[in-house]
Structure formats: structure tokens, C-alpha cells
Amino acid sequence: MPQNFFVLSGEQLELAKDEVISISNSYDPDTEYRSEPRLVVTKSAVPFEKIAARAAFVRVAGNISGTFDDVDRIELQVPRPDTFACRTINLSSKKVDGTVLERKAGEILGKKWGSKVSLFSPSLMVYFILTDTSRYVGYSDMPVEPKRPEKIFKYPHELESKLARCMVNLSGLKEGQTLCDPFCGTGTILLEAESMGIRSVGIDFDKKMCDISEKNLAQNGYESRIINSTFDYIQKIQGDIDAVVTDVPYGTASRSSTAPKKIIQDFVSILPKKMRLVMVYKKGMDIDELDKAKKYEVYRHKSLTRMIVVR
Question: Domain limits at 97?
């Protein structure tokens, strides 16, 4: 079974790790993984490209060839590349001169393959990933950049697109399945879902927000269904959706006279118990119904910490 590596960007490390695992599990429930700070290694039938193209917090990804102790005995079971480059990624607590390792490995592999080193657009990238417990050799023949939607209309204090993308991935949805955001606002979550091939339905009681969502989606060629209604409309369409991913409004973002915590209680109470739910709200609005849910804290500034719950 192939092994893949994912070097995380350093933001929201617990979220980033679980995002990679959730994406892989959605395609291969038998995924095995191990993790170290800023690194996830999976053993799975899912190609690394498929995960890296979706993940919000992955910086570099590729195949794992093995581990090494001595650079002189590095083995990579790959077809001979026309050109290649070596790169050290030091995730250990020790200071490492990566240029020495890269130069030596470049000489050894260049002689073995009869290939030239090219620092610009090489046909193969060789990675030396150093942690406090392991020294991995990895490789990739292509950089993977997630397809990101364009947003022409924004709103102050809206959910960051990377966090929205991560939340969609934590839902475990795959292409062709359907997500619902019952507080869709300007459509950030819908856009990220559609960009990954996941169908989406948005609900918002504010007609202005519905119009903005529709324009943002149309700009990207997406045809998500947008419904101008209160969140309880979800009861009418629950048979057509596979998960709920949403950002509950609070403060100036909320135009409702109902307290945000009460909105969360009422909203969760109408959802089927087995419905997959990923929700973000302001810290301090926890409710008993979500006590057993997986929770993450996302610090923004001294007066705002967000909670993400996955049920």
C-alpha cells in the first residue's frame, strides 16, 4: 500500500492533521496514518494528489519512498527523471544545513540516474523530511495547488476561506454529495464546497445575503441552490443533503433578535441525530447537545476565539 506525506503549513495544526485524515478516510476508510508536528504520513489507496488538491493547510505533499540514515545509500524506486531537484524540509528541533544534504544527494542521484539537477521546473522533486524521530525520503513529480474560487463580494468579519475549506473537508463529503449551509451569508462555505465538486445548498433569512451568495457563485460558474428562509427550512430538504457545514452568526454579523446561543440550541434540535455537522461559533456558546462532539479552538484575537465542532 502506498505511503504519502503531507507537510502542514503550521497554522491550526490539530485541524490541519485531522483535515488530511478526514479527506483520506472519505475515499479509503482503511487509511492508516501516523503524525508528528507538522507532518502526516498516510498508508492508503488514495493518491496524495487527491488529498493535496483539497486540503487547506497542506504546504507540500508527495510519496514516501522510505527512510534513510546515510545519504550515500539513498534508494528511490522511481523511473529515471529527465531533471530533478532535492529539497530538505527540517521539522526537527535540531539545526540542519540542508544545502549540504541536497548537494551531496544531488551528486549521488545524478550519477545513478544520468539526470541533471534543475532548480527550475524539475520533472521530479526529491524531499528529505527530517523530524526528531525519523528521516524520510519522499518525492513528487508535480506541485499540487488547490483550485480556489474567486469571491467578488465580501462582508466584514466573514469566515476565512481556508477555514471554510477545512470545515468542508472535516465533513467527510466526496464529489457528488450535497452540503447545506443554513446560515450561508456571502457563500464562503458553498464556494469552497463547489470548488471541490461537492454540491451545495445555501439558506439565509437575509435576502441581501442570498443575493450576494448567488452573485459570488455565478462568478465561478456554480449553480448552488440558494433559499431565502430561516434555518428550519432545512427540515424540508434534509433527505436531499449529506452534511451540514455552517458558521453561526453572532454580534454585528447577526441580524436576528434571538441570542446566538439560543439560535444554536434551536438549530441543533431540529437536525437528525445522525446528520454529519461541522459548525463554527464564538467561544462561550457551547450547548449540552454538543458535549460529545470533537472541538477545536481557533484563536483570532484577544476578544475572539472561535470553536469548531464536528459531530
Answer: 3-140
